[in-house]
Amino acid sequence: MLGIAGTMALLLSAVGLYGVIAYSVSQRTREIGIRIALGAQQNNVMRLILGEGMLVILIGLAIGLAGSLAVTRFLSSLLFGVTTTDPITFAAVAVLLAVVALAACYIPARRAMRVDPIVALRHE
Question: CA 32 to CA 26: how far, in whole Å?
């Protein structure tokens, strides 16, 4: 029962994370259009967006891991068959959420770079 609840929580967090990051990157369509119109290379713009996304992802993972390590003391009585700080579980969840967050940065950024800069500038 706890495994099903944990899986659902992981799925909901991955979908929510993707939605929030994809929305924030899609809001930068005008900025991306301006950068490309001024002569920035698409690779440099993509690197900028992914770099900023990775910074947010790493900060979030650090805070999340610290919080989850703190909460495991309270949940230790509910865990069966695993230690309270199972490194494989922590690493797997962190890697999964980081991959989802990177995809959430990459997909909208790629879509925004395909937009004609004039269209992006007329967007608002």
Answer: 10
